[in-house]
Amino acid sequence: MTISLTINGDPLEYSGDPRRTLLSVLRNDLRLTGAKEVCGEGFCGACTVHVDGAPKVACLIPMGTLSGRSITTIEGLGAPDMLNAVQQAFVDHDVVQCGMCFPGMVLSMSHFLAETPHPTRDEIKRAMTGNLCRCTGYERIVDALASIAPAQEALS
Amino acid sequence: MIHASSLQEALDHQASGAVLFAGGTWAMRGPMDRPFVTLSGIPGLDLIEGQGGQLILGALVTHEALARALSTDPGRAALALAAGKSATPAVRRMATLGGNICTADFASPDLVPALLVLGACVTIVTAQGVEDLPLADYLATPPGPHVLTHVKLPAVTGRSTHVRLMQRQAGEYPLAALSMALKADPDGTIRDLRIAVGAVEARPRRWPALEAALIGCTPDPAALRGIARDLSDFIGRDAVDAPGWYRTRVLPGLVARAFATLTAPEGR
Amino acid sequence: MSTQATTPDRLTKAVMNLPRRDARDKLQGRTRYTVDDTDAGLLHAAFRRAEIASGRILRIDTIAARAMPGVKAIATAEDAPGLHGIGIADHPLFADEVVRYHGEPLAVVAATTLDQARAAAAAIEVEIEPLPACLTMEQSLAADAPLIHPDWQSYEILKDGAARGGNVAWEATVVRGDTDAAFARDDVTIVEGTYQVGRQSHVPFEPRAVVADYEDGRFHIRTSTQVPWTVRHVTAKVLGVAESRVRVTVPAVGGGFGLKFDCSLEPFAAILARKTGRRVSLVNSRREEQMTCLSRENADILIRSAVTADGRILGREATVLMDCGAYGGEQVFLTTMTAHTLGGNYRLESVRLSSRAVYTNTPPNGAFRACNGVYNTFALERHTDEICAAIGMDPMEFRRRNVVGDGDLGATGQVFEGDVLRPMLDLALTKHGPHDGRTHTDDGRLYGRATTVGTWFIFVGPSAATVNLNADGSATLVTSGVEIGSGTMVQSLPQIVAANLGLHPDDVIVKTADTDASGRDLGVGGGRTTVSIGAASEAACEEVRQKLLRVAAQMLQTSEEQLVLKDGRVEIVGRPGSGTSIQTVIAQAEADIGPISGSGAFTAPGIPAMPGCAAGHFIDAIDIPVFAVHDCELAVDPDTGAVEILSYRVVQDVGRALNPRAVHSQIQGGVTQGIGYALHEDITINAQGAFDQAGFSDYRIPTALDTLPIDFHLYEGAPSCGPLGTKGAGEVPILNVGATIACALARATGQAANQLPLTAPRVMALMDGAGPDLRFPHISRRWSDNTIAFRD
């Protein structure tokens, strides 16, 4: 059985084991290694991708359920020379450390801000609970997000 | 991985050993050498529909959809809170109502205590046909091979809430969870009360002794704690996340907290 | 040219909030960590690990596994006969004859796919006869305990002078002054306390991972490490090859926190690369990463103090038992640190310390951010509060009177320079106000506040640097530093080089570790990168500068003393625009003397201790002390034992902050990790000798909702031999967090919060009067009984 889907706009015909995770296919077959395998159980959010525009954890999604779906990974967000507003705020506030959680963090929080243009600090933090980070202690990331929250039009 | 397009198909595959696959948040963490049968191709399983005061929820409704749909329904706030505070935002987009109920070896399903106090019935389909049964009965005596298709919530008149105790503020299973549905007279006398407890024992269950003791009373918080302590017959489950004694030790406090929420003037 | 005259200028130029150059790629998912090497043609490796804490290996049969699909090679103990270790060589690569911990490698398989490697590893036939196990230090120190290393006396000693014996892997002692006399006085109050901490897991998001290749008869190891030179050394040692045959390079590292301050997976992958002639990837699964984490060690601590009514500490005796697990590892070194952490903070008129690494049949422990310091500071600060309660003195007043200042002696008799802690304490008090008598929050929870002090140090040691000037006027800095996330390689180092050469930091290319190209280095850890590599870089810059100025002076017909490097130009002092571009000078230099480069080196200056005080120590005194004052307010829910941190405030001695924003990031991240350590992160060891917490579902690292904005003040100006007066700032933020939270919680609940982590069930038990039993039958109240060196 072949599963047809798109990944970052490119069509993919997948005919391997349908139980394989999207994360494994992204990383090992397509070499899209921006999604990280960290906990492998859905707790950490480092493998977050957009499935039809909604952030989900790629480690728990089997390929067999993705027929007709459109996947966006961090590599497919914006263009190489163009950061989105969340990425730009993270650069401007210099919040990145080891960086392993950030692709997932960017995808989760870009979606959150698109849905919640004027969030409170607490709402930002609640939205971030599925994206764990071991380096930063979060608050400076929250500062960065809070700084762009009112400027939603900048989000691509 | 097989995609069922009808319930009969799902039942057939289940009979030949396939594991039902809903949101996948449990299935994908188990052994990968099993055949799965997905339910997402079966029409109607993601439905959220009010019928009179009754609410019908498809088994594939996600936690996120549930929390969103119930966000303005104070009577079913317990379920909205349980769904909205479970797991993480991304997992709430994937995990389903049916999966939460049907993962039988999971002691801490968030939705189940809330469903219990809201008087939920479940609709199951077996080889013999379609059957509605109270959730409590379903949990007590798990039926043979079946597909759980819907949950029906009766009309509500009171208020409800859900208290979820964790070590951290998010991102983990509850150490203890308590749902409460309350109907009170204007003078504060408890007219109807349902309490269910999750995560403390192997499966969530109601707390009938405490419910019975409090109906007709107007308890103050201190008395409430005392009664809850005296009437607790829970045997706490020892597990890595918390010792059993702790799960039962905190219950009076959770009862008091839920009660205070439901009797606070502004409601929530 | 006068160094003194240029220092303020260099400092001014160096200080800036330079943003990270690696942020864009990290945010776009383009950064390739070691785990991201998924290229076709790689072989994948998987371990077969022991699932027993202690046993005799009867049989390991790989024949069937070898015949399975995709399998290319299997390695076992016979492929790596050497032993390695710190201080003592006690650690084989694979379990050999005996298994000493659950998870110990028995064999490793390389196959075409990871699934094939795992299947073959599982198919290896293993027969192990169970032996009695010691899972706790109490069991290991019992009179009839089985020896975990029966052959301990035959091991190669890598550092002389320590007492060892039985299940005590290493013992470091400090004896200064006459504590017996102090404790015997009739005008002292004797205060005794016991303290216990569990393990903490680093949880780097990139697990330990390596890709090894065998090229032209040499090993090339690409690895996620903090210590490329240690990896080179250990790999060579256990494989029995010359060190020069091993090359180590390091891509971006996805978090370390000390876990990667030791060689780990690299030799296994190297063996498989040699056996197969192919590139081999070996990556810990998350479960393996957790279950074999070289954790911050659990420790059992007894402190006794003889204190006068006016708060003088006449005598202090302490025993610190550090669980090293099945092999000595980092704990052997860390026994040294007790002298400076538990023996730190306060003036002691006499002191005796016993700091012991104890073998158990549990996974080996390792280094973790402010290792040893975190729990000794917890024990010391709780003990200090217990002293204050016993003699009826205000805890802040006691600390003000006793903290070490200019000219005071440390535990090993080193003389401290400068008053640092007391002014920091005063600043904290002024800034945060005195402790009031609040006992409850407005919503009825129990309220507590505490202020603690802590002493940490910079682990200096040797570093080397080369600076090459490029024709375009940029400079390339070549060192063995690696970027583990802290930003040192992309912020403070290019800032230092740029300030020295009159460049913008963007024009400083930073080459990360390649042991074929960069000089030897102790590694990235211990807060040492900015200090040691920074100092070596400054020295390299000095050579570059001198060469540049010599050529420029010729060109500009002036003396070198009249020239300054500024904004990419060589200018004549006081005459901006009169000079020439650095490119022009470089071009001239190529013609005159060849391309300009400079090399520099740094090593520990070696502050003296009092002779004869310390035995079994790797360093006798600390070259760069670092001090911290933390203040925390918290609320405890009496119904659940849940703790909420209401405020957290830090005054941190940074020497000089070159990049204040980056230091802030370290403080926010370090304190948050400390909150996890203090409250949530628990590791328990079950009857099989394995950790109960195998992944993110049970091991609880803080989420965004479990921290808060950390208030901070960077205290500048304390003495430091670091470049431009810097001290490392990344390690120390975690130092006092467990201490401060425990002290505040003790005040809130009125109970002895002497065990970490303070999980909600533990706090509930404390409030119920059912706290832990910390009587410690394995630690004698007679100090000398807790030593080998001084036992009767």
How are the elements arranged and paired?
The complex is a heterotrimer of chains A (156), B (268) and C (792).
Chain A: E1 3-7, E2 10-14, H1 22-29, E3 48-51, E4 54-57, E5 70-72, H2 85-92, H3 102-115, H4 121-127, H5 139-148
Parallel strand pairs in A: 1-5
Antiparallel strand pairs in A: 1-2, 3-4, 3-5
Helix pairs in contact in A: 2-5
Chain B: E1 2-3, H1 7-15, E2 19-21, E3 36-38, E4 48-51, E5 54-58, H2 63-69, H3 77-84, H4 89-92, H5 97-102, H6 111-117, E6 121-126, E7 129-134, H7 135-140, E8 147-153, E9 159-165, E10 176-184, E11 190-198, E12 205-206, H8 208-214, H9 221-231, H10 244-249, H11 251-263
Parallel strand pairs in B: 1-3, 2-3
Antiparallel strand pairs in B: 4-5, 5-8, 6-7, 6-8, 9-10, 10-11, 11-12
Helix pairs in contact in B: 2-3, 3-6, 8-9, 9-11
Chain C: H1 3-14, H2 23-27, E1 43-49, E2 55-61, H3 63-66, E3 71-75, E4 83-84, E5 88-89, E6 91-92, E7 98-99, E8 105-111, H4 114-123, E9 125-130, H5 137-140, E10 156-157, E11 163-165, E12 168-176, H6 179-184, E13 188-197, E14 209-215, E15 218-223, H7 228-239, E16 246-249, H8 266-276, E17 280-283, H9 286-291, E18 299-308, E19 313-325, H10 329-334, E20 351-359, H11 373-391, H12 395-402, H13 421-432, E21 446-458, E22 463-469, E23 475-479, H14 492-501, E24 508-511, H15 529-556, E25 563-566, E26 569-572, E27 575-581, H16 582-592, E28 597-602, E29 614-615, E30 624-636, E31 643-655, H17 660-680, E32 711-716, H18 737-749, E33 755-756, H19 760-767
Parallel strand pairs in C: 1-17, 13-33, 15-16, 19-20, 23-24, 31-32
Antiparallel strand pairs in C: 1-8, 2-7, 2-9, 3-8, 4-6, 5-10, 11-12, 12-20, 12-29, 13-18, 14-15, 14-17, 18-19, 21-30, 22-23, 22-28, 25-26, 26-27, 30-31
Helix pairs in contact in C: 1-14, 7-8, 11-18, 14-15, 15-16, 17-18
Descriptive report:
The complex is a heterotrimer of chains A (156), B (268) and C (792). With 156 residues, chain A is α+β, with helices and mostly antiparallel strands. Chain A has two domains: 3-76, Ubiquitin-like (UB roll) (Roll), CATH 3.10.20; 85-154, Orthogonal Bundle (DNA polymerase, domain 1), CATH 1.10.150. Chain A is built from five helices and five strands, in the order E-E-H-E-E-E-H-H-H-H. In chain A, strands 2-1-5-3-4 form a five-stranded mixed β-sheet, covered by helices on one side. In chain A, helix 2 (85-92) packs across helix 5 (139-148). The longest helix of chain A is centred in the last third of the chain and has 14 residues, at 102-115. Chain B has 268 residues and is an alpha+beta fold. Chain B has eleven helices and twelve strands. The radius of gyration of chain B is 19 Å and the shape is globular. The model of chain B has no long low-confidence stretch (mean pLDDT 95). Chain C is of the alpha+beta class and 792 residues long. In chain C, a hairpin with a 4-residue loop joins strand 18 and strand 19. Chains in contact: A-B, A-C, B-C.
